[in-house]
Structure formats: structure tokens, C-alpha cells
Amino acid sequence: MHFRERHTSENRRFILCLINRRLKANSRKTFARSTSGPWPWAPSSAGAASSCLATRCCRTLVDEFGGEIPEAMEDLLRLGGVGRKVANLIRGDVFGLGGIVADTHCIRITNKLGLASSKDPVKVERQLEVLVPRQRQTDFCHRLVHFGRDCCIARAPRCDACVLADCCDACQKGESA
After folding, report:
1. Does residue 13 contact residue 44 with C-beta atoms inside 8 Å?
2. How much is the pLDDT for 167?
3. 38-47 — which CB contacts under 8 Å span 24+ positions?
4. % helix, strand, coil for the chain, step of 5
5. What is the per-residue pLDDT for 20?
6. Do 79 and 60 touch, CB atoms closer than 8 A?
7. Are 62 and 44 in contact (CB under 8 A)?
8. Which end of the chain, N or C, is less packed with Cβ atoms under 10 Å?
9. pLDDT of residue 48
10. Contact of 71 with 97, CB cutoff 8 Å
11. In sequence order, what DSSP letters do the residues of 67-128 get, joined into one string?
12. pLDDT at 31 (0 to 100)
């Protein structure tokens, strides 16, 4: 198996273990009481800091939310290792509530297209929330990630093959990256 495929599947398994709402409360309680790591299902790249955050996250889920993943942004932000990006991802993918996931692709591409004018994730999130309807925000962000990986690659953008080249500020100015 290719490194990227293995890494992706391990991360996917790790994330699914954390956010799967159908996990039994006992599993969450056992995990929350656990103080050692890494666990057999955790990605190989998860070090002590990741293990600590995952444990703290699960403890908070069990102690404050009865083992259920909360929907509210404020509640998600109280979980260990969860920032605005991950909270918006959970709200969009798990609960269907939408949310702008302002990751590196989103920030870079929306700035190039003139949809945002900041490198600050919170500012970009606020600017895009006004432009993108809530029901389309999750899909919009996923499409930006794929577009950023396939065409608008940070170090070597394929502007000649880009369908958005005519509306890209960076392309119009002759900038390549």
C-alpha cells in the first residue's frame, strides 16, 4: 500500500473512532479513562501530544456531553484538539449544518480568486460565510480541497489546465503560486 493511502486510511480510522456517534458509551468511557497511548488504531504519526489531546477530547465527551458529539460550535471548541476548522468539518460532515473549513487550500484558493482577502482562517471563514449559502458550504470546502490537490497546487499550479484561470486574480497578474 502506498504511504499516502496508508496514512489516509489510518487517519480516517482514527477520526471515525473519535466521531462515530454509534460507539457505545462504554467504549468512550474506557478510552477516556485510558492514560497511555498510542493505541493500536491510532495513526502511526500520532505522538504523545496527539494521544494526550485524543484522551482529553474523549474525557470531555464522556464527562460533559454524556458520550455524545455536540452540535454547537462552542461545545465542539471545548474538546481537546478541536479548533474552528475541525469543528466546522464535524458540523458539516456529521450533522449537515454547513460551515466553512478554512484550511490551507481554502485560504490560498479563495484569496487567488478574490473571494477572500486574508490569510487569517477566521477572517476567511467570515468572508466566505456571507458568499456561500449554508447548505452548500461543506461541499464547497471539499471541492476546494480537491481542486487544490489536482489543479491549483501550491508549489506548481497548473494554470494552463485551470477552468477558473479567467477569473483568477493571481493568473491575471501573472503570478504562478
Report:
1. no
2. 86
3. 41/13, 41/14, 41/17, 42/10, 42/14, 43/7, 43/10, 43/11, 43/13, 43/14, 44/7, 44/10, 45/7, 45/10, 46/14
4. 60, 0, 40
5. 47
6. yes
7. no
8. N
9. 59
10. yes
11. TPPP-SHHHHHTSTT--HHHHHHHHHHTT--------HHHHHHHHHTTS---S-HHHHHHHH
12. 54
- Round to whole Å and give the CA distance between 31 and 147: 37
Instruction: State the CB neighbour count (10 A cutoff) for residue 110.
Output: 23
Contacts for 77 with CB less than 8 Å, ≥ 6 apart: 83, 84, 87
Are 164 and 113 within 8 A, CB to CB? yes
Answer for the pair 34, 17: CB distance below 8 angstroms, yes or no: no
Instruction: Report the SS3 class of residue 43.
Output: coil
Cell of 142: 471539499
Give the per-residue pLDDT at 95. Answer: 92
23: enclosing H helix or E strand: none
The residue type found at 161 is A
For each successive 10 residues of the chain (177 residues), what is the average pLDDT?
A: 42 49 48 51 54 81 89 93 92 92 94 93 96 94 92 90 86 70
- Whose grid coordinates read 494554470? 159
Residue 129 parent element (H or E): helix 121-131
